[in-house]
Design brief:
Blueprint: H1 6-20, E1 54-65, E2 70-80, E3 87-92, E4 95-104, E5 107-110, E6 114-115, E7 124-129, E8 136-143, E9 150-153, E10 165-168, E11 189-198, E12 202-205, E13 208-209, E14 214-216, E15 220-231, E16 238-241, E17 244-247, E18 252-256, H2 258-267, H3 271-282, E19 290-294, E20 303-304, E21 309-312, H4 325-332, E22 340-342, H5 348-367, H6 369-389, H7 412-429, H8 431-444, E23 448-450, H9 452-461, H10 468-473, H11 476-481, H12 495-508, H13 523-531, H14 539-549, H15 557-570, H16 576-585, H17 589-599, H18 603-616, H19 622-632
Parallel strand pairs: 1-11, 18-19, 19-21, 22-23
Antiparallel strand pairs: 1-2, 2-8, 3-7, 4-5, 4-8, 6-7, 9-10, 10-16, 11-15, 12-16, 13-15, 14-15, 17-18, 20-21
Helix pairs in contact: 3-4, 3-5, 4-5, 5-6, 5-7, 6-7, 7-8, 12-13, 13-15, 15-17, 16-18, 17-19
Bound molecules: ligand BES and zinc ion.
Length: about 625
């Protein structure tokens, strides 16, 4: 068996002892992992058996190598083994396991391990025989080219074009591709980490930074991190690049490449206000700092709620703060998701539906009801389209994703139907009682996993007070376990959007673009207007719109994407070049999927899409590649 390289071993020992002493697992890390109110948690996406042995704390040493595009790691897992079980099961996918050691009463001994059968999506179980007295399990490992959580960017894919970049995306079940772990959201652990990177770069994690980085021989640097709040594996996150920091408020700030940081700090100026609104509504912010990391444009999502450090796409830097609902959303996850966490991916709506609900409460507080209602209406319209397209069983809030990719559950249903369900409940009980209930939910279940049934039981004991007839009138079972949208769907009406849709109607009836009344339109009216244009508009009408409003030259990624979607079916050819550069430079899946799908509708478009994709694919994150490969029937 290969042993770890001497150099790695050599400098790993010192920091290991150093960080072992830094932190004792916090009290909340020990509570594992039955669901609320005694509901059992069986996660079909993990090989781990946390009811027997669960991890409570991680001491992690990472050596980030941009030359080989690998991370060499040592993970020391502190475990809880109440019944004296004889094995620890972890999840891995595409990891090379080098060595396992066991720690018992301060003594280290050599351990053994067994990798299970390779399963698609899930990877392999890593079975480590342990003794009842084993306190910690140390695993030396390396990532491989199959680490789908990692995106390694060449310097040319960054804003500064001088330094490479690395970021992780662990949700939903990709943490196991860069860290052997119990990769289920039902298990939480605290962590400390030491991360070694090239001296010209900085490392950030979903954790607090501990002191200043230390210069190491060979021009490298070591960053120390400490995460005293227990988190599930999907919230493990790391980014390495040429990063600088700007404060936003007393406990918030933004990290970005130097070329981007000023505009990011301007765009996110309201972050501290959002935090204050959240605390008033949902209870204290329990994570210390809240920072935002702006990633290069290949980041496959809009945002990711990594604790203490939201990861965000640069495509929300619109220059007019019109896309900051995303910050409200990721910040809101500090309560819904990061504090009270979906127990399995079948309960994903508990994370996202609650978060969209919280997001709207923040947006309403900061920018007013009318503005927020516009956002809600756009959400409902998207949801209605999604429901038409999905299999009815995939439109339930509670899902059954056994044997499927958890990504399949990542639809507007969890987000928007989840939101509407909670808004319906708010309407039924009145805001005052509902808010008290919501706050007690976060207080009572903080740092714990939550199942759909656990939430329904809490609702039943609380607001419903066991009133079956009321539950029936509110159609609660229909919302959660039924398809589509129940009849007591709340009304979501926006006058501003009604006007934008009317403008689209006038325009399609022949009115010239220059007489349209678009004064004061925000991004959202534009999106609504563009979505209401008929697919069969002739190209010269689109040319008219473009001449008056300069849409092809828009710097707003949302408007630009929607404009491309309107222009493609009309065969309005001036968009083709800009569309191509958009697809090659931006990796946000929400934009890529509809654009490639639209292109693929005609044989000529499909050929074009394939040509563009061949060039763009190497620059996309594995998560986006998976989706677009499927859309275009791409064989690697
Ligand atoms: N947690 C999600 C992103 C996610 C979900 C990643 C499932 C992987 C699997 C994040 O909070 C999110 O919802 N992001 C949205 C933006 C939001 C404003 C709706 C996105 O990226 O589009
Ligand atoms: Zn979210």
């Amino acid at each position: 068996m290969d042993v770890p390289k001497q150099s790695l071993q050599g400098h790993l020992c010192a920091p290991f002892l150093l960080i072992c002493g830094l932190v004792l697992a916090s009290g909340c890390a020990g509570r594992q992992p039955t669901g609320p109110a005694g509901f059992p948690v069986k996660d079909p996406h993990s090989f781990s058996r946390p009811a027997e042995v669960s991890v409570t704390h991680l001491t992690l040493l990472l050596d980030v190598d941009f030359e080989t595009r690998t991370i060499k790691g040592e993970a020391a897992w502190r475990i809880r083994n109440p019944a004296g079980a004889r094995e620890l099961r972890l999840d891995t996918r595409g990891l090379t396991i080098r060595r396992v050691q066991l720690l018992e009463d301060g003594r280290i001994s050599e351990g053994s391990f067994l990798l299970g059968e390779q399963k698609p999506l899930l990877g392999q179980s890593l079975l480590v025989p342990i003794e009842p007295g084993t306190r910690e399990v140390l695993i030396a490992y390396e990532t491989t080219g199959e680490a789908d959580a990692l995106q390694w960017l060449a310097a040319r894919q960054t804003a500064g074009k001088k330094e490479p970049f690395l970021f992780t995306q662990s949700q939903a079940i990709l943490a196991r591709t860069w860290l052997p772990c119990q990769d289920t959201p039902a298990v939480r652990f605290t962590y400390t980490a030491a991360v070694e990177v090239p001296g010209s770069l900085s490392a950030v994690m979903s954790a607090g930074r501990k002191g200043d980085p230390k210069e190491l021989p060979g021009g490298r640097k070591r960053f120390l991190f400490e995460m005293p709040q227990a988190i599930p594996s999907y919230l493990m996150a790391l980014a390495v690049g040429d990063l600088v920091f700007r404060p936003l408020g007393r406990r918030s700030g933004v990290y970005a490449e130097p070329a981007v940081v000023e505009s990011a700090a301007w765009e996110f100026a309201d972050t501290e206000k959002m935090m204050e609104a959240c605390e008033e509504l949902f209870g204290p912010y329990r994570w210390g700092r809240y920072d935002i990391l702006v990633l290069p444009p290949s980041f496959p999502f809009g945002g990711m709620e990594n604790p203490r450090l939201t990861f965000a796409t640069p495509t929300i830097l619109a220059g007019d703060r019109s896309l900051v609902a995303l910050v409200a959303h990721e910040l809101a996850h500090s309560w819904s998701g990061n504090l009270v966490t979906n127990a399995t991916w079948d309960d994903f709506w508990l994370n996202e539906g609650f978060t969209v609900y919280l997001e709207h409460r923040i947006m309403e507080r900061l920018y007013g009801k009318e503005y927020d209602e516009m956002l809600a209406r756009l959400g409902l319209d998207e949801l209605s389209k999604t429901i038409q397209e999905l299999h009815p069983a995939d439109t339930h809030l509670k899902l059954d994703l056994r044997g499927r990719d958890p990504d399949d559950g990542m639809t507007d249903v969890a987000y928007e139907k989840g939101y509407l369900f909670l808004r319906m409940l708010e309407g039924a009980f009145g805001r005052e009682r509902w808010d008290t209930f919501l706050r007690s939910y976060f207080d009572r279940f903080s740092f714990q996993p939550m199942t759909t049934e656990g939430f329904l039981a809490f609702l039943d004991q609380g607001l419903l007070a066991g009133d079956r007839a009321l539950a029936k009138r509110l159609r609660i079972d229909e919302w959660v376990y039924g398809p589509g949208l129940p009849a007591n769907l709340p009304l979501v009406r926006s006058e501003a959007l009604r006007k934008a849709a009317a403008a689209a109607g006038y325009f399609s009836a022949g009115l010239g673009a220059e007489v349209l009344k678009t004064d004061g339109w925000t991004t959202h009216e534009w999106l609504h207007f563009l979505r209401h244009l008929p697919a069969d508009l002739p190209a010269d009408r689109l040319a008219d719109l473009d001449r008056v409003f300069g849409l092809t030259a828009s710097k707003n990624s949302e408007i630009l994407c929607q404009w491309f979607l309107a222009a493609l079916p009309a065969g309005y050819s001036p968009v083709m070049k800009p569309l191509e550069s958009f697809l090659v430079s931006v990796g946000r899946r929400k934009f890529l999927s509809p654009l490639y799908r639209e292109l693929a509708k005609t044989p000529g478009g499909l050929r074009r899409a394939q040509e563009i994709y061949a060039r763009a694919r190497p620059g996309y994150h594995p998560v986006a590649i998976g989706t677009i490969d499927e859309i275009l029937g791409w064989k690697d």
